[in-house]
């Protein structure tokens, strides 16, 4: 699928834009699953001011979708209409601040923030070691692991809305619940301020090593996957419900329910986004029939189906 190339029009309409605009840019390579169609336009803003300028001046009706490192995403096979925004270099500063705080751009991978905190003797952020996304995704997903989540360490976040207005949100403004952020859907996060507590570098590093080992033993982290597919329903583990419904190893097209961790779906190599989504929906149907529980997608699905 190829979209109409609107980049020339956009460049005329936004003469002071500094970031790159690319037409029909493949998105599969920007996601962990490695599936899906192109972005009609991929925009990589230079910095927050460039992002705000773009959002202010793009046609109001044009769809805008933010992506991070694509570790929680299925991009559908027909691609994503409108402008897909991916933050890069201009959002990659990490600064240690007083009181065991760390300020970071949202394009910074979570692991890098965990490491910077450890090096500075800041405890409490080691859980980020195991989450393969960037900070923007952690803010939007309330990413968490091993009993901690983003909401436990976030002081404030900066965001730009669809009209180009910059906002500073407190932790409360994010309206966090499990794997959910209640900040307006159109907000694109640009920066986060996290607070940990005093810790010993060696102890934090050991904790991070333990997380790495545990991940390697229990999750298919070297596969093309999107991590946990479904949220854990209250009082249940999604993987146990999936296992009990007989879905471990289930295959649809080129997609499979992981044998190692059955809340993970895997692209065996030639899956389409439709294969993965159909497999997910098949699992949901079987779990509902077996246990009466309706699983809710944790993975975000964006874009258009081909059929
Ligand atoms: C092997 C593996 C293990 C995983 N383990 C965990 C885990 O332990 N815990 C956990 O919580 N998750 C886990 N995940 C899921 C995923 O890593 C997290 O959800 C992560 O926070 C997503 O970040 P990302 O940058 O990849 O975001 P993406 O997948 O690119 O996007 C996810 C969502 O965030 C939004 N988004 C991204 N950046 C921004 C931004 N700057 N502003 C506004 N919205 C934005 C997107 O629009 C989308 O809705 C795992 C994934 C994999 C592949």
Mean pLDDT: 97
Distance between the termini: 12 Å
Radius of gyration: 20 Å
Shape: globular
Summing up helix and strand content along with how strands pair, one would put the structural category as alpha+beta
Descriptive account of the structure:
By secondary structure, the chain is α+β, with helices and mostly antiparallel strands. Helix content is 25%, strand content 27%. It contains seven helices and 19 strands. The strands form six sheets. Strands 6-7-13-11-12 form a five-stranded antiparallel sheet. α3 (110-119) packs antiparallel against α5. It starts with 6 loop residues before the first helix and ends in a 5-residue tail after the last strand. The mean pLDDT is 97. It binds flavin-adenine dinucleotide. Residues 32, 66-73, 87, 106, 130-134, 136-138, 140-141, 143-145, 188-189, 219, 221, 225-227, 300 line the site of flavin-adenine dinucleotide (FAD). Flavin-adenine dinucleotide binds at residues 32, 66-73, 87, 106, 130-134, 136-138, 140-141, 143-145, 188-189, 219, 221, 225-227, 300.
Summary tags:
five-stranded antiparallel β-sheet, 307 residues, alpha+beta, 7 helices, four-stranded mixed β-sheet, binds flavin-adenine dinucleotide
